[in-house]
Design brief:
Elements (H helix, E strand, L loop, with lengths): L2 H73 L5 H70 L1
Length: 151
């Protein structure tokens, strides 16, 4: 077999390998963009959760204060019945707000966990793509070594 014949046999393989390498590189770029987008979303959600946590802490402090006031007013119920009803309504409103915030935090937590799972999947795809790319590079190096040794 002539060197030219060998080259004719190897050239299509090299072209196919280069196409696969380009495809893998494009996939890696897409996965990297997805990871970047999800990271931004996670940071945003994390900030929202931090704000919600601060608000919950403030509402918890306010609820604690209202509970103390309610306790004092209970001792004076006979004299201050109208004031006790008003404070009870305020405590109820704050309790509703806490429940709403708790529900919102639960939903946000679900979103964060979903995004974390998505990021994990994307990282796995990225690692797989990187492995495939490394394999293609090894095959390219082998082909180049074969070509050099045959020349």
């Amino acid at each position: 077999m002539k060197p030219g014949d060998r080259l004719d046999q190897i050239e299509p393989l090299i072209a196919e390998m280069l196409i696969k390498l380009d495809t893998t590189a494009a996939k890696v770029d897409r996965v990297a963009e997805d990871v970047k987008a999800h990271s931004t979303q996670i940071r945003g959600l994390s900030n929202q959760i931090g704000k919600l946590s601060d608000q919950t802490g403030k509402l918890s402090d306010q609820t604690g204060k209202l509970t103390g006031q309610t306790s004092k007013l209970t001792d004076q119920t006979d004299k201050l019945n109208n004031q006790t009803g008003s404070l009870s309504n305020q405590a109820s409103k704050h309790s509703d707000q806490i429940l709403k915030l708790t529900d919102l935090m639960a939903k946000q937590s679900e979103n964060v966990f979903f995004l974390l799972e998505s990021v994990g999947k994307l990282e796995k795809k990225f690692v797989e793509s990187e492995s495939t790319q490394n394999q293609i590079l090894m095959v390219q190096k082998s082909i180049l070594t074969l070509l050099k040794s045959n020349n």
